[in-house]
Amino acid sequence: MGRREHRANGSGGPGPLLEIPMAPTLRPTKEEFEDPLRYIRALKTSGYHRYGIVKIVPPEGWLPPFAIDQKTFKFNTRVQSINELQRRHIIAAKSQAFMKKLDAFHMSRGQKPPKMPVLYGQKINVFKLYSAVVKRGGYEVVTEEKRWREVGCLVCAKHKQITNLSFLVRVAYERSLLDFEKYVEKCCEYLKLDTSHLDALTDACDAEDGATSDSGTAVKVELMESPTKRPRAGSQGGEETELAALDGLIGLTENGASEGAPTPVKREPKDEEEEKPKSGDLRVPKPDDDVDMGIDFIDHMLPKDARVSEEPVNLDEVYCELCGGGAHEDQIILCDKCDKGFHTFCLAPPLESIPAGEWCCPDCIFSATDGLAFTEGSDFTVEEFRKMDSQFQQEWFESKGKTPTPSWWEVEDEFWNIVENSDEPCEVFYGADLDSGRLGSGFPHSRHGHTGQYADSPWNLNNLPKLGGKYCSMLRHVTDNINGVIVPWLYMGMTFSSFCWHVEDHMFYSINYNHVGKPKVWYGVPSHSALKFEEVFRRYMPKQFELQPDLLFQLVTMLSPRILKASSVPVYRVVQEAGSFVITFPRAYHGGFNSGFNCAEAVNFAPADWFDFDQDSVDRYREYRRNPVLSHEALLCKVCETDDSPVTARSVQAHLKELILKEAAARQESHLQAKTCRRVACTSHNPGKGFGDDDAECAICKQYMHLSACTCRCTPNYFVCLECAERMCSCDASQRTLVYRRTLAELEDMYANLLSRVEGCDVARKMSEDFGKYGSETPRRARQAEAWCREAVALLKEGCAPKRAVEDQIDSASKFLWGGHAMDEVRDHVTELEAALEWGREVASCLSAKRRKLQLDFVRGLIGADPKPLDVDLSRLEKWVRDTEGLNETASKVLDSTEAKAFTFDEAQDLLKAANRSLIVMPLLEDLTTAVASAEAWCAEAQDFLLLGKTKGAKPPFSALASLSKRGQSKLPGWSIRERVLVQEAIEAVESLEREAEEVVLAKPTLKELDAVLSAGSSIPVSVPQLEEVRRRRQVAREWLREIEDGSARGVKDLRKLLHRGERIPVDLETHVVAMKFRIAVQEWTEKMEGALRARFTNIKTMEEVIEEGVGGVDGVDEDNELVVRARTRIRELTEWSARVGRLDTEKSPLDELRAAIAESSRVGGNAAHLQKAVARRSWEAKVDGLLEKNANWEDWDGYEVALAEGRRSGMDPVRMQALEFRQKCMITKALGLGRKYFFFPTRSWGPKKRRGVRSRKRNRSFLHTTLRVNRQSPAPSFYISPKVRESFADESVRRELVPLVQFDLKWTCWRSPTL
After folding, report:
1. Which residues, including other chains, have CB under 8 Å from residue 552's CB and lie 6 or more apart?
2. Which residues form the JmjN domain (predicted)?
3. How many alpha carbons fall within 13 Å on the CB side of residue 1080?
4. Is-above-0.85 flag for pTM?
């Protein structure tokens, strides 16, 4: 499977400090590269999925052009604060603590909570603004040092280019935070930014209470239970909290609390004297003037009339904000901040119980942490982005005293240093999730007018998600172009820009291609360690997960691989250079960063084995109440119905079985025994046109419902999945309706059809093993169905059943109709009951008919039902039938050939009038009408027909002749007419010919027999259908004979096909078949002989066997055959050449003779590999001897290098190679001129000298470990030696010329300087 690289890092030279093993680097061959999904399946089979991530380097020469115009392509970016990626939970805690302090400050002044300002559409994070100003010394210092623009660039990175940014930010700070800063400095010094003060608030409050108690005043701070909240489990009304302590310290007491304060503080004095303030009491002055928060250029997120409501909530009207339902009121929890209600089971993830203490809803949590997510950045072209990154990288690393052009591992070290340890803000731009369908792809694609090899390549990320074939992608069945999943996303990266830990949507495979630029560094955690990874993440950030349980879906948080490695979570690294792919496996967490400017493109794909993870992803979406990208059930059903790949069938059969059993179990749950069950075309009441758009979303868990859903009469348009049906409302199950689009029987048939596509699968046995006797049904339901069937049979057997009873019986069957094949008997009886109701409707329709004509057989069927299905009066219909039957009997006598003489033509007309007045159509009415109307014209018609049959052209069918005879018999009974006799004779002739043609068809006739039958048919006046088969056989036989004669089939394969066709023709062609077999035998021998002559190396024995096979076993092949003559000549020439070669001595014979023998070998088919090897060896030895004969000269250094490389590669003479190496050693020793013994250890890579890179120490004052490099650029040879060598041994003149350039790497360990 191609070549792979799997190296550790950091051994023997400069490298990354982060000790993370490298994931495999795979280099597929060109053949493996042709089918990407087959290759990736082979990777998983080989166990590469255990790494979670791999790198794939395309074969040499596969390099698609970068299809983006770097000067005009413009994209938007997002701003990433790198120093906050891992410590986001700490910053979130600081931000929330700060907002509590700020809220308490404003409430103590009688003001509304502060409004979050927005500058030019970007929300300003007041915590970040306050932190930036305080860390720079406060408002006065920032103003004096004119650092407001620096602050503005930090908090409003998107608007760095605004000229008056410093003014806008300063005014925003003055009107939002300046009073708070002064207040904190003046009165509450310990309430500054450090969160340790927040943790000490309760202790400070207790200490303050103790001081006042000594002075005679007792202050008890307690939260009074709000009338808008329901009691919470485990909460206590007098519990002191940090927020209550903060309120007490700032002054939210009974006397000083504002009207809008949401949590009033209660003071309990001991007596009247203790009410008086003491000198030791803490008294905070309340400012008199309110601050005007209005500003022209700043928008506010809250409405003008926002205030804290003290109106009690009517619990009878409380409903869930997520699903909109008000049922299960005991499981509705109210937010402590906004008073909105939420079902505990609708939250993401669901709460198992009502939490103790304060609880905030997802909206309030989002508003509190929204400023910590990535914000929108500026727009760039590719060239602008590249230049900006180059400038940023140079300035950043120069400011750290490092090289301005770092390697990827130096960028890695700095990146994790910032993420883990740095408090210094570091903001970068990242052009992520750019829609290639709208902006353009980095690959050539037909969508944008490109054609050619790379536009159609399966590795083109625009084509990969929908590849077909044996190893196909399941996403090809999705009709929508989903951005980021089917339509690739572009990623424009710069230094430090990162993609945080995550798994793909639906745990898809993902593939990323780096088009241009510097490497992307990836980290991957395999799927088998995903749960452990999440556990470590939650353990490291418990508060953040408490606020945002779906944090890992947000893609905004990083966690150092060091932490994961310390927790025994396997992590692997991939360095993705330009021109390489990175593939992540399902459920493999991955993240990383960019070491500089680059442009990458990524998309998802889903081979059949991806279904092993899709159900897990759906369960994960359901747990966190997140909307999936597509419907799992719809995709699985469509794949099972339409995908004909046996690989897909084998991969998905277990998942379809699991889906059927799961759906059966869900429908059979007792609480789902709804009163009605209804089959629908789709579960959505407002279906769309896209894939899965006709599937409704569960109002509780947000998952698609493809197969079934549940609704209730109380909310007709409110659908939930069967797993959430128990929570949908408090109505009785009789009010609910189960809607389904497929029965379990249809799903079982789908499974059986799928098994039929699995190679070697016994469908019947497998179905029995998987579903048992009752299929997907339970024995209990089967017994219920049997009981229902007995009731239905009783109704049908007794007859005269009340209509209402039949309808009730059908309604009671609805709970069985969605079942499996075990319910087929119920369906059959339902069909019979529905037929009974239809019988009653038809009877009622007949009785209500006025001028409508009724068919006699139909009415007979209605009144002849035994037993009568429903209790209906049929006397009127019975009288109508008797009257019509009497008329019909008379008409039959009029039309009968024996009794027609008893009736006159007038009587026949009177009979026709009476029949037309009847409400029921007489069966012979049409015949009687035809007889009366056409009696006089029949003879003329018969004469015209017989004359028409003898003319050339298309003949009428036999049915026309039979119809003419029938009408003649019915209209003219007893009449002796010549034309009638002629018609009868023609009928007999046709019947005779039909029998003859059938006999010929049943046998295997000759062509002569076929011609005789067709000749007889030409004299018949009508066409005979049986002759068509005779005519077809003759035509097929003649066409086959023509193909043999024209010689269009030349190859053996074509001839065998032709022979096979001839043998299957139902005509006796034995002579021609035998001739064809002889022709095939000759052609097979000819092709075998030509193949032997075309072979590169001739095998004399094989060729003689082919000659013997042809001459002795194939008719028409003898010694004079051209191919036999050529083969004999080839054998003779090869024998002579082999003899000449045997006489040559590879060591002594002239090279010209050896080369001539090699050249002649290609003509005669000889194997001259040993001669070629001898010529190469002797040529190398001659070249080396020439170099050694000359004096040592630096101009020949490259010649030494080339000769040594060739010698090592081909295993040449070791003596000469040692001589060459000694010659090089002598040259180097002479150039050094030190005369001492050295050990040289070449380093692995080139870069700045590091402490670990080169080791230097003395051994007995005469040995030194160092690194030697040759300066290949200077006119004369010069070398780089370590500083310690220069200080100890090198003189001043040599030291000035030592420049570190190209590494000189020789495979020796030591040598002693010879005397030169």
Report:
1. 501, 502, 503, 534, 537, 589
2. 23-65
3. 16
4. no
Taking residue 1275's Cβ as centre, other Cβ atoms within 10 Å add up to 7
Cα four-point dihedral sign 226, 232, 235, 241: negative
Spatial distance between the Cα atoms of 1296 and 1298, rounded to a whole number of angstroms: 6
Q: What is the pLDDT of residues 300-337, one digit of tens each?
A: 322 333 333 334 444 445 667 766 666 666 677 777 66
Distances (CA, A) of 503 to 419, 506, 1079: 21, 8, 64
Q: Identify which has the larger pLDDT, 157 or 1179.
A: 1179
**β-strand 25-27 against 53-56: which pairing, if any?**
parallel
Of 174, 173, 119, the closest CA to residue 299 belongs to: 119
Nearest to 921 by CA among 838, 845, 858: 858
Report the candidate in 954, 955, 1067, 1074 with the shortest Cα–Cα distance to residue 1011: 1067
Q: 523 - beta bridge partners?
A: 573, 591
Q: What is the largest CA-CA distance in the chain?
A: 150
> Which DSSP state fits 798?
H
Given pLDDT bands bounded at 50, 70 and 90, which one contains residue 689? low
* Helix or strand run (H / E) with residue 572: strand 572-576
Provide the residue count of the chain: 1316
Output the six-digit token pair for 1154.
Answer: 């050896």
* 960 vs 1089: CA distance, rounded Å: 64
Which residue in 84, 83, 91 sits closest to 417, CA to CA?
A: 83
Cβ atoms < 10 Å from Cβ of 1090:
13
Cα–Cα dist 847/874, whole Å: 9
For 575-594, the DSSP string reads EE-TT-EEEE-TT-EEEEEE
* Selection from 1130, 1304, 1049, 1051 nearest residue 1201 by Cα: 1304
Residue 863, H or E segment: helix 856-863
Q: In the prediction, which pLDDT does 2 show? A: 54
Across the range 1119-1138, mean pLDDT stands at 80
The rounded distance, in Å, linking the Cα atoms of 1107 and 1098 is 14
What is the per-residue pLDDT across 233-245, written as a single tens digit (0 to 9) for each?
333 333 333 333 3
Contact predicate 394/387, CB 8 Å: no
The pLDDT of residue 1310: 36
Residue 44's φ and ψ, nearest 5 degrees, are -65, -40
Compute the distance between CA of residue 716 and CA of residue 730 in angstroms, rounded to an integer.
14
CA 444 to each of CA 66, 128, 388, 463: distance values in angstroms, whole numbers, following the listed order = 8, 44, 27, 11
Rounded to 5 degrees, what are φ and ψ at 819?
A: -80, -170
Q: First and final CA of the chain: distance in angstroms? A: 53
DSSP string computed for 1201-1245? HHHHHHHHHHT--HHHHHHHHHHHHHHHHHHH---S-EEE---SS
Query: With left for phi above 0 and alpha for psi between -120 and 50, is residue 760 left, alpha or beta?
Result: left
**Strands (DSSP E) along 211-302, which ranges?**
298-300
For residue 1144, give both structure tokens: 């040559």
Q: Is 60 exceeded by the pLDDT of residue 1300?
A: no
Do the beta carbons of residue 758 and residue 653 sit within 8 Å?
yes
pLDDT in tens, 595-627: 999 999 999 999 999 999 988 889 888 888 888
Residue 448 pLDDT class (50, 70, 90 cuts): confident
Q: What sign does the dihedral 151-154-155-156 (CA atoms) show? A: positive
How do residues 1006-1033 score in pLDDT, each as one tens digit? 888 888 888 877 777 777 788 888 888 8
CA distance 167 to 165: 5
User: What is the C-alpha separation between 441 and 483, in angstroms, rounded?
Assistant: 12
pLDDT above 50: residue 194: no
Query: Do strands 520-525 and 589-594 pair parallel, antiparallel, or not at all (unpaired)?
Result: antiparallel
Q: What contacts 449, CB < 8 A, 6 or more positions away?
A: none
What is the gyration radius of the CA atoms in the chain, in angstroms?
Answer: 47
Contact between 1227 and 1195 (Cβ < 8 Å)? no
